[in-house]
Amino acid sequence: MANIAVARIKREFKEVVKSEEVAKCHIKVELVDDSFTSLRGEILGPPDTPYEGGTFILDIRIPETYPFNPPKVQFLTKIWHPNISSVTGAICLDILKDQWAAAMTLRTVLLSLQALLAAPEPDDPQDAVVARQYKETSDIFSQTARHWASNYASAPHREPVMDDKVAQLKNMGFDEHKARVALSTHNWDIEQAMENILS
Amino acid sequence: MATENIEDAKAQMGYDPTTNYDEATMAQQRQIEQEIAGCQPLIGKETDLKTLHDEYSPEDKIYQDKITDLQRKHSAYRRIRMDGNCFYRGFGFGYMEKLLKDKSELQRFKEVVTTSKDEMIKLGFPSFTIEDFHSNFIEVLEKLEKDCGVDELLEIFNDQGYSDYLVVYLRLLVSGHLQKNDDFFMNFIEGGRSVKEFCAQEVEPMGKESDHIHITALTAITGVPVCIEYMDRSEGHGVTTLVFPDDKTPVLTLLYKPGHYDLLY
C-alpha cells in the first residue's frame, strides 16, 4: 500500500513541477524531507480577490492509502476566509473529504484551493465567524481578508486603517496577532476588541 | 445572544476549536475499515450456497424461502467485502474469472478498455491519472492472456492496492459513460444535480455504493450483461431477478442484499 502512495507521489511531483501553472508561479510543491509523505504546497492568491498577490503555504500529508483517500491539507499561512479556519488553517473543501477521487492529483488539489480563494462557499463554512462577516458585511470582510493577506502572505495591497488599529492595540501591550483576531472578529471596533481580549 | 448560546453549547459538548473534527471523523472511518479488513478478504472463497441459510434465523421465513429459491438456480457464492466498492469488485472479479476461459471475449474486452482511455481524456478526465489506472488495468488483462489461474486472479483482487486500482478504473468507465450520454441519464438523477456533479459525488469517489444507474452504465460501456438476484424483505417466496440490459443473456450473476452485492455461481 505504502509503495503505491509513494510511487504515485513521485510521479505527481514531476507532473506539478513541469505544469504550466508552475511556469507562471501560481502553484508549487516541495518535499519537506525525503519520505514523500510530507510535502509543502504553495499557491498564489488569485487576481481580483482580497488574496491577490499573496503567497499561501500549505502543509500536505500523504496518507498510506493515497490515492484512494485524500491528502490531508491545511494552511500554514494565516488566512481570513469562510472555508478556512483562522485558528488552525483547517480547510472545508468537498474534494478533501467525501468527494475525493483517486483520479485527482496534488495539482487538482492546489488548483481547487486557488479556486476556493476566488469563490468562497459561506454556506458550508469552516470558520463561522468569518462566514457570517462575509455574508453580512462583505466590504469589511474583503478589507479584513486583504489586511491578513498583506500581513501574513506578503500580498502587496495594504489596508492602512486596519494596520493602524492593530498598531494601536500593539502599542498598548497587546499581542499583535491576538489584537488582529479580536479586531477582525468585532468588525474593527477597538473598544469591543479590547473588551474581548481582556475578558 | 444567539452566538453566546452556541458558544455555551459548544463548551458543554467539549468542543475544541483547535481540533479538526472532519479529520477525526475520517481517521475513525479508516480505523473501522481496517477492522473490517482484518476479518474479511476483499473477495472470499467460493462457498456452498447452503451456508447462507445459517446466516439468518430459521424463523426468518422470508429470507429462508428466498435462499431456497436461489438454490434452484445457483450452487455457490463468493462473499465480497462490504466497503461500498462491492459491486465493482464483484463485477471485476466475476467477469475476469470468465475471461480466463474465453479468449475471444478477452480480446473484445481488451479492445473496449483500450479505446476507453482516449474517450475519457476527450471528456476532460486528467490524462495523467487516467493513464496510470488504464495501464494497470491492461496489465491485469495481459496476465489473463498469459493464462494466469483463478488463484492468481484471486491474489490480485485481494491485494488492496492492486484491487482498488481496478475498482477505480471501473468507476471511471461508469463516470465516462454517464457523462458521454448525459442527455439520457440526466432524467434519472435526483436532487437537481447535473450528470457531472452526480459522477463527482456518487461514482468517482471510492466507497460510494452502486444503484441501477451505475449498473446500467457499466454493463453498457463494457458490453457485459449482468444478472442481479435481489434478495430483500419484500413479500413473496422468491428472489427478484433483473438482467441488465434485459434483452441479453447475462455473463455473470450478482446477489443483492440491501446495501451489498456478492458474487453468485
From TrEMBL, chain A:
CDD domains on file: UBA_II_E2_UBCD4 (cd14391), UBCc_UBE2K (cd23800)
Top-rank taxon, per record: Eukaryota
Keywords: ATP-binding, Nucleotide-binding, Transferase, Ubl conjugation pathway
Gene3D superfamilies named among the record's database cross-references: DNA helicase RuvA subunit, C-terminal domain, Ubiquitin Conjugating Enzyme
EC primary class: transferase
Domain UBA: 161-199
Keyword tRNA-binding: no
EC number per UniProt: 2.3.2.23
UniProt domain UBC core: residue ranges: 4-154
Active site positions: 92 (glycyl thioester intermediate)
Classification via SMART domains: UBA, UBCc
Record-level Gene Ontology MF annotations: ATP binding; ubiquitin conjugating enzyme activity
PANTHER family: UBIQUITIN-CONJUGATING ENZYME E2 (PTHR24068)
Record-stated family: Belongs to the ubiquitin-conjugating enzyme family.
UniProt protein name: E2 ubiquitin-conjugating enzyme
Automatic annotation (TrEMBL), chain B:
InterPro entries: OTU_dom (IPR003323), Otubain (IPR016615), Papain-like_cys_pep_sf (IPR038765), Peptidase_C65_otubain (IPR019400), Peptidase_C65_otubain_sub1 (IPR042468), Peptidase_C65_otubain_sub2 (IPR042467)
Protein name per its UniProtKB record: ubiquitinyl hydrolase 1
Signal peptide: none
Organism: Capitella teleta
Site, as annotated: Interacts with free ubiquitin: 230, 232, 256, 261
Family: Belongs to the peptidase C65 family.
Keyword line: Hydrolase, Protease, Thiol protease, Ubl conjugation pathway
Single GO cellular component term: nucleus
Superkingdom of this protein's organism: Eukaryota
One annotated GO molecular function: cysteine-type deubiquitinase activity
Catalysed reactions, as listed in the record: Thiol-dependent hydrolysis of ester, thioester, amide, peptide and isopeptide bonds formed by the C-terminal Gly of ubiquitin (a 76-residue protein attached to proteins as an intracellular targeting signal)
Active site, UniProt feature: 83, 86 (nucleophile), 260
CDD domains (alphabetical): OTUB1
Documented EC number(s): 3.4.19.12
Pfam families attached to this UniProt entry: Peptidase_C65
Residue span, OTU domain: 75-265
GO BP annotations, alphabetical order: protein K48-linked deubiquitination; proteolysis
